[in-house]
Amino acid sequence: MSLVFASIVPHPPLLIPNIGKDELKKIKKTELAMTKLEEDLYIARPEVIFIVSPHGSLFADAFSINAHTDYVSDFEQFGDFSTKVEFRGSEDMAAHVSRLSKDAHLPVQLVSEHKLDHGSSVPLFYLTKHLPNVKILPLGYSALDVKSHLKFGELLKEVIMQSDKRIAVVASGDLSHGLTTDAPAGLSKVGAEFDTKLIELLETRNTKGITNMDGKFVEDATECGYRSILVLLGILKNMDYTFKNLSYEGPFGVGYLVGNFAF
Question: Which class is domain 3-262?
Fold first, then answer.
C-alpha cells in the first residue's frame, strides 16, 4: 500500500501572512501545528497529495476531481494579489479514479480548473514548502449521504493501493463556524459540542460514532469539514492508526483542527 500520510487541516485565509498580518498571532497554535505537520509530510516523502476541499467545484449528486495539468493558488478574493504558489497535477491518478468510479457506479464529475480554491490553497501553502516536485489531485465532496462518502474514500483507497507512488491524503475543512456570537454563522447552540465530540471520536478511533452522527446535529453545527473527514475515514478503513490532535482553537468563532494520523 502506498499511503504514506493522512491528516485533517483547517483552511482560514488568515494563515497566509499577507492576509492575516497582525491577526496571524491570534491563531499561533494553528500556525505552529501546520508547521509541524509540514515536517511530518516532508519526512513521508509523498509524490502525490490527494486533497479534499469543501470549496472547489462541488456538486449535489456527484464527487468531483479537478483533472487539470497544473494549478495556481488564488487569494485575490481576500485582497492578496501577490502570494502565488504553483502545483503540478496528476492526470493519471484523476483518470484512474474516474475509471474505477464508473465500475463502482459511484457518481464522479471530472472538472478542469487552473485556479485552486482556498480550501486547497491555504493548507498546501504550508505543507508543500519543501516539496517542489510533488503533484496534487484536488477532490471535492458532495451532498450525497454518509455511506456514499465512505464509499468514495474506499474507492480512493483502491486507487492508492494499486499505485506504485507514495501518496498523501489531506482532508481540508473547518469545524463549527458558530462557536461565538460574532462567528461567521452566528452562535450555534451545538457548535462547541460538535467540535468536542468529533475530536473525541477521532482520538478514540470511533469511526462508527462519527458516521452515525445525527444529520441535523451536524448541520446545526455549521461546519465544512465533516464530509472531508468522512472521505478520509473511508480511505483509512481497516487500517491500524492513531490520531494525533496537534492543535485545536477557535478565536474567530470557527473551529480549527490540525490532526495527523500515524500508521
Answer: alpha beta
